[in-house]
Amino acid sequence: MEQIKTPFRGIAEDIRGRALWYKQDWTDGIRSGIRILAPTTYIFFASALPVIAFGEQLSRDTDGSLSTVETLASTAMCGILHSIIGGQPLLILGVAEPTVIMYTYLYNFAKGRSDLGRELFLAWAGWVCVWTALMLFLLAIFNACDIINRFTRIAGEIFGMLIAVLFIQEAIKGVVNEFRIPKGEDPNEEKYQFQWLYVNGLLSIIFSFGLLYTALKSRKARSWMHGTGSCRSLIADYGVPLMVVLWTALSFSVPSQVPSGVPRRLYTPLPWNSESVYHWTVIKDMGHVPPAYIFAALIPALMIAGLYFFDHSVASQMAQQKEFNLKKPSAYHHDILLLGFMTLLCGLLGLPPSNGVLPQAPMHTKSLATLKRQLIRKKMVKTAKESIKQKATNSEIFYNMQDVFIEMDSTQLTKSVGKELENLKEAVMKAENKEANGKENGTRTFDPEQLIDPYLPVRVNEQRVSNLLQSLLVAGAVFAIPLIKKIPTSVLAGYFAYMAIDSLPGNQFWERFLLLFITPQRLYKVKEGVHASYVEMVPFKSIACFTLFQLAYFMLCFGVTWIPIAGILFPLPFFILIGIRQYILPKFFQPHHLQELDAAEYEEVIVARASHPLGLSAEDAESTYFGNTEVGMDLSDGEILDELTTSRGEVKRRTLSFGEEKHLQERY
User: Fold this and answer.
1) pLDDT tens for each residue of 13-30
2) Does the structure show a pLDDT above 50 at 343?
3) What is the distance between the alpha carbons of residues 167 and 471, in angstroms, rounded to a whole number?
4) What DSSP letter does each residue of 458-501 carry, written as one string?
5) What is the mean pLDDT of the segment spanning 453-460?
6) Which residue has better confidence, 618 or 352?
7) Contact 102, 343 (CB under 8 A)
8) For residues 39 and 363, what is the distance between their CA atoms, to the nearest angstrom?
9) How far is the C-alpha of 34 from the C-alpha of 446, rounded, in Å?
10) Whole-angstrom distance, CA of residue 388 vs CA of residue 400
11) How far apart are CA 546 and CA 544, in angstroms?
């Protein structure tokens, strides 16, 4: 009730908070120089590829009323606006799978009504966006973002699992459709004769599974044994788009005797064709929508507004997790208000709206964390080496490095910096003691190149330039449609499968589901490796009951998506789940068990005993926890951050099990 009594409070606070940093948001990006291009291109490919795939899905599900042109245009326009006037510039916007689902339901409803039909579908969707925008305005004005902490892990994980299953569903549908004649096509054409239809289907299996396999392999390139660190990082960051290009190129290697159209390729009108230009004038047809349907648009608008509020807020949360150590304030209320304006604009232009997307938002933050870390590390190492040449003591070396850190991290108070660098100070002092004790044995002085890495706090280059540049690149992709049209539809089907499988690691619902197939007698195997904290803290029976509840609720949500018209209500179970989590689940699970199973953070436990079955020594245990510092170790910043984040972009909080923590305390 307090939120309702003080309208505009959250928006005003957000604007005041971010206005203080607005100039620095631009100068920090510009000062990065050419280095900013690395995270820019990385997030551009991560953003553009899904949008292209969703465009193909929308084109198929709406009989061409919407296409890749519209999804790219919406993503570019909303991204540019958000990067300039948005509250949290690290948040990446794009047309996402929930939007595709909702627009498919809207189209199926409209085409079955004689007074709407395909002709007025986009005009009616425009009215849905008008109502959606109005509801988002009200949510922002009355400070609804204050309840964002009620979006616990259980809702996010079921939602993520639902999207993954829908991706798999789309991938299967895409491959199956390659064996069929597309709707509205002439079955007498040569390419639709049985033998060529069969060849097209077999090629689609090869291309889709080929893309899936190579994309998954390249995504893990940083952990490969072969190649240099920079080469592995390049493949890990750009491997997926490179695999799309590779399999597209291979699709042109089919024999010349194969008729044109085998394999099938992405169909979308060009941006300057009449089918695309029409969208910019949809507002003219909105007056032709019957009044009854204008008011009926309130129902889907309510679902979309709630969905966007949930999805946008969670994506923003993930982009600014506390482990990233962001120094600039959040702006949830302001961003929801801006989302309302962008939804309204997209509706009036006949475009599907864009909102905050996962995992691109935390991926953007992670890429900027790597950039900032590289800059700080380089200067700290240089300072340390200069101090060593001057024969400074380790204490002096540390304080020189701390001065550099404070200089480059101007947003942080000196007192808090000292606290954050406490572990680095202890490591430097420990190295000094070891040197003093080991001089007679010829022990070498510590190497700052290796010592700094494990103890350097995460820093993010918080700025607006990378988001603006990647949005401009997406806008440029609109005019690259003639090239994009050469991608086989089967490659996009494989990409849907890749997005589904890649999203599963780090989803604790999925991990607990797999845990159900492990007998209690074999659980010790899980506890011997890196594992989630709930494995040690919660009885197996409680884990099983909680997971089975999630599974049943997931099946309910998935079942709703299959209901022809009522499927538009599929976000409703997620809103109900907030109440179930708060008022019903505590009656069936002990509070501390529920806190572990539905924790706000992803906590991992690392096990490495001196008497470990795999033979890890106590030194190995320490290096597992604090980071390996062996000479010549080829470990990039990206690899370090990959180890500390899930595929969803969530930062893991790593701790030792009780036994390991006690062991290390006894050592030191």
Assistant:
1) 999 999 999 999 999 899
2) yes
3) 24
4) P-----SHHHHHHHHHHHHHHTTHHHHTTSBHHHHHHHHHHHHH
5) 67
6) 352
7) no
8) 9
9) 33
10) 11
11) 6
